[in-house]
Amino acid sequence: TQSTWGKEKGDYWLELIHHPENSWRWEIIVAVFRGWQVRRLMETEKVLTYITTITDARDFLARLRLAQQQQGAVDSRDAMLQQRVITQLRAAIFELHHLFFDAPLKARLDLIAASQQHRFNKKIQDSFTSGGNARGGPGVSMATIKSRERKNTPKQPPTVESGVKWERRNP
Fold first, then answer.
1. 132 pLDDT above the threshold of 60
2. Residue 61 carries which DSSP code?
3. pLDDT at 13
4. CA–CA distance, 154 with 117 (Å, rounded to integer)
5. Cα distance between residue 154 and residue 156, in whole Å
6. Mean pLDDT, to the nearest integer, of 110-136?
7. DSSP 3-state assignment of 19?
8. How far apart are the first and last CA of the chain?
């Protein structure tokens, strides 16, 4: 279909997007989106796990090297342990780099969406399990709980042993 500009609509939008005067606008939009994406990825469980692994391995290696310097000699078992920790550190760094730079956009957005859904479900579950009180759930007052308990307990007539006297009234 022809538009009022004499070209197809798709061609017009492509020209508008790739026009040199608009390039700075698109750069700003892309930068804002990438900033949003990085902030959301940094909040995901997967990235937090990688970061924890990296910091723990780095700290462990520093303590191990300090102990080796104080001891003077390097044990073969310590050397093997150091190599395994370095391998683990490299793998975590590689995975983190892959996630931020090499993974397709859809995979990153899926990870963000899954993490947000997991946090939402966890928040809902926590609100029901640790609500305002132990038995009632979120936002249920003690009066409501007592009322529910009275409704759920079967009614039993008072007995003579309970101290209640039964008197028959005449009409």
1. no
2. H
3. 76
4. 42
5. 6
6. 77
7. coil
8. 94
Q: How many CB atoms lie within 10 A of CB 35?
A: 10
Residue 163 has pLDDT above 70, yes or no: no
Phi, psi of 137 (to 5 degrees): 90, -170
Contacts 24+ apart (CB under 8 A), 126-133: none
Q: Which residue has the tokens 């390039």?
A: 23
Cα separation, 49 vs 10, in Å, equals 44
Q: What angle do CA 116, 102, 114 make, to 5 degrees?
A: 15
- The alpha carbon of residue 39 and the mean position of all alpha carbons in its chain are separated, in whole angstroms, by 12
Its pTM stands at 0.61
User: From the DSSP assignment, how many helices (H) and strands (E) are in the chain?
Assistant: 6, 0
19 compared with 47, residue with greater pLDDT: 47
Encoded tokens for 72: 């003077």
Torsion angle, CA of 94/96/98/103, rounded to 10 degrees?
160
Half-sphere exposure of 34 (CA within 13 A, CB side): 8
